[in-house]
Amino acid sequence: MNNLRFTTYLTSNIGTDKAVLEQLLSHCSIREFKKGEFLLSQGEKCRYSFFVERGLLRQFSIDDKGKEHIIQFAPENWFMSDRESVYFDRPSSYFMQALEDTVTFLLDENLFLELSKSDTAFLEFNNRLLHNHIRHLQRRITQLQSATAEERYLDFIRMYPDLLLRVPQIFVASYLGITPESLSRVRKELARKNR
Amino acid sequence: MNNLRFTTYLTSNIGTDKAVLEQLLSHCSIREFKKGEFLLSQGEKCRYSFFVERGLLRQFSIDDKGKEHIIQFAPENWFMSDRESVYFDRPSSYFMQALEDTVTFLLDENLFLELSKSDTAFLEFNNRLLHNHIRHLQRRITQLQSATAEERYLDFIRMYPDLLLRVPQIFVASYLGITPESLSRVRKELARKNR
């Protein structure tokens, strides 16, 4: 298990206490999803936090008019979950889908809570994960409320530096909350400025 | 202290273990803010979670063009904080302002962490607070991405049933991410439907 991104991630975030790491790993299962496959559908209950070992996920909602709105991408080393659905045991508002063949580790919420109770390092790790999640969501709101199309695009590049080549333009536009035509205009304008 | 909203809130959320409640209360200070007074300015570090005992707060950002965007209101029994700023010790992106004369309890982040380590009931309470925060932020994003002006307005009424009479229309419009003119149209349209 030593050459996995997940173990490296855990070691650098929780520390090197082997007992805790082994307890955690013994409760995680691995699951692979083919490109296009769904991990979760709107209306289902989300059971896990998914850690992306390899591949790429997207999380999105579909509105009443059938339009998709992407809330998050998760490439390698990212977590994806609907914490609301998991925690409050409610049907999810989101779909999760693999955009590439993807390998994930599945962590369940009880595990988070139980390990937090028994291990301080894990408690602090989970606390950091939750605050990081809040940070991302707050930034997303500020972006949607007030950023121009160009600012949103530049934010996207900073947040997901290697995704431009992996994600179809139409999904990037959906994430940014702009039309594909606006995205195309922004890209041309930036290319012109940087010439 | 028994007739306070804060103690009732804590008792119903953490339980009636007097030792824990007293430990918590002994670390909280009370602060009053006059109508219009700021609890936090953009660029400052946020130090606390504020529990609203009486009154009303708003949290907002100001964009490059000087336009305000309200992210949250907090009437009685709500918490308001910039968890990102507190936790990561970063300058805040937000202002917090009292919209009425307001009495708050101040809880600091170390207290949350220390009590979580020493007391399981508090750990679960803090975990619930964080997940509730995530739930609100996720809904806000979905609302901003995909809801019509009317849906946003109806959501607002569900979320803050008694605020319509306490908050100026211009602030409601700012929270909803629509113009005051759109808000006025939506209200007229709903009044017409319900006639």
Write up this protein:
The structure is a homodimer of 195-residue chains. Chain A is of the alpha+beta class and 195 residues long. Chain A is 49% helix and 21% strand. Chain A has 8 helices and 8 strands. In chain A, the strands form 2 sheets. The first copy, chain A, has a 4-stranded antiparallel beta sheet. Chain A has a 4-stranded antiparallel beta sheet with strand order 2-7-4-5. The longest helix of chain A is centred in the C-terminal third of the chain and has 27 residues. Chain A is globular and about 55 Å long. Chain A starts with a helix and ends with a helix. The model of chain A has no long low-confidence stretch (mean pLDDT 91). The interface between A and B is medium-sized, with 34 and 34 residues.
The tally of strands of chain A reads 8
| Tally of contiguous helical segments of chain A | 8
Category by helix and strand content of chain A: alpha+beta
Spatially, the strands of the biggest sheet of chain A line up as 1-8-3-6
Low-confidence stretches of chain A: none
**What is the arithmetic mean of pLDDT of chain A?**
91
Helix content of chain A: 40-55%
Oligomer: homodimer
- Radius of gyration over C-alpha positions of chain A, nearest whole angstrom: 18 Å
What would you call the shape of chain A?
globular
